[in-house]
Amino acid sequence: MIIDKEWARAFAEEWVAAWNSHDLERIFSHYTEDFEMCSPFIVERMREPSGILRGKAAIRPYWAPALKAELPIKFELIAAYAGADRIAIHYRSVGRALVVEVLTLNAQRQATHGMAMYGEPA
Question: CB of 88 within 8 A of CB of 118?
Fold first, then answer.
């Protein structure tokens, strides 16, 4: 499945809006029940040495506290990149850090896998 640029941008805009709403169920609507998330913060915050969590039940305790943190999540979309079965969402995160999140999508265009990569503050 080839993702077109317009759809990727619309998906990324809704994805960022969901995060900025701090509504975990709205965020989860972009993902399958059994999706896999990879992030270096999973190692740090969840003490999972692989950096991988699988399924909404495992990811809920990872994401939920961040939505209630003293420094609230506020993402700013920079760009969305389209690919074959994947999109990359480039955004500014908390502390203005640059992030690229790559999502693999199924035929229903829900994420089955996510991988977050973090850069320096911008």
Answer: no
CATH of 5-121, one of 3.40.50.2020, 1.20.58.480, 3.10.450.50, 3.30.420.40: 3.10.450.50
Q: Using one digit for the tens of pLDDT, what is the confidence trace for 74-104?
A: 999 999 999 999 999 999 998 778 999 999 9
What DSSP assignment string belongs to 26-59? HHHTTEEEEEEEE-HHHHHHH--TT-EEESHHHH
pTM above 0.85? Answer: yes
Residues 6+ apart with CB under 8 A from 43: 49, 50, 51
